[in-house]
Design brief:
Blueprint lengths: L8 E6 L1 H4 L8 H16 L3 E6 L2 H8 L9 H24 L5 E6 L9 H13 L3 E6 L6 H5 L4 H11 L4 E6 L20 E2 L4 H6 L12 H13 L3 E6 L4 H9 L4 E3 L7
Parallel strand pairs: 1-2, 1-5, 2-4, 3-4, 5-7, 6-8
Antiparallel strand pairs: 7-8
């Protein structure tokens, strides 16, 4: 039995590449599968928090644009349109399993030391009602990351995990985990199943940016792992292509790369 089954409060980050096709349009079958598995985890007694990317990508598709725009106002418009689509989708799909969702749009100003308590209180109360929080950065008004092209939803997921005092952070992306080389260029690259400590070597293994629709990459996931691990939270990077991988992760703990939390004194 996987020790991950004992992790009660779990933050699951869903990346744009997991939620959409290469065209930017919603991957309906995959999203439905993810919701089914997440709903089952919630029903099994886990407390699930979702950190979801995808609003800009869905907005691009909804507006009929051929590619992600480069100017900030257009990205903001895509985020505004896409966020409606994203929450409608989650509300409808989780509703089929008699589960409720709540939207939480955050900015970095809300996460400042003197304001974090408000976010924590809201999360705790939402969870106490048996509702699944769906967290995203408010890209409509928080433009810093839009202009810098930094995939901060990975770090946001780690920060949310810390605020919620989560037991586990799962980042689902378009790669199986951390490799000892770039698997897209080197077919002999091997998956690293467990990282006990993030070292300079581990950081060097992180590559650049992700897909054209998303903005993240392995480097943002390593940063997220450092945030989570330093706060006593294990983190997993895994492939979101097959929704059932989420189920098997909790059954076997033999998928993706597990970054072990640092013990006090390490």
């Amino acid at each position: 039995m996987s020790y991950l089954k004992e992790k009660k409060r779990v933050v699951i980050k869903l990346g744009t590449s997991t939620l959409t096709h290469r065209t930017g349009r919603l991957n309906i079958r995959r999203v439905e599968g993810l919701v089914k598995n997440i709903a089952d985890l919630q029903n099994a007694g886990h407390e699930i928090i979702i950190v979801s990317s995808g609003s800009i990508g869905l907005g691009v598709s909804k507006l009929g644009l051929m590619e992600k725009p480069k100017d900030t106002p257009s990205k903001q418009a895509c985020a505004a349109v896409g966020q409606c689509e994203l929450m409608y989708l989650y509300d409808k799909l989780f509703g089929e399993y008699s589960l409720k969702v709540a939207q939480m749009l955050l900015t970095k100003y809300m996460l400042l030391e003197d304001r974090r308590r408000n976010v924590t209180n809201a999360l705790e109360r939402i969870i106490s009602f048996g509702v699944i929080p769906v967290v995203n950065e408010n890209d409509v008004v928080a433009i810093d990351e839009l202009e810098l092209e930094v995939g901060e939803n990975d770090s946001l997921a780690a920060t949310v995990a810390c605020l919620a005092k989560a037991d586990l952070l799962v980042i689902m992306s378009d790669i199986d985990g951390l490799y000892d080389g770039d698997p897209r260029e080197n077919p002999d690259a091997k998956l690293i199943p467990v990282v006990d400590k993030i070292t300079g070597r581990i950081r060097k293994l992180a590559g650049g940016a992700g897909t054209s629709l998303g903005t993240g990459g392995m480097i943002t996931k390593i940063r997220a792992a450092e945030i989570a691990n330093d706060n006593g939270i294990d983190m997993v990077i895994m492939n979101g292509k097959n929704p059932d991988n989420l189920y098997w992760l909790f059954e076997t703990a033999e998928l993706g790369t597990i970054f072990k939390a640092q013990k006090k004194g390490d």
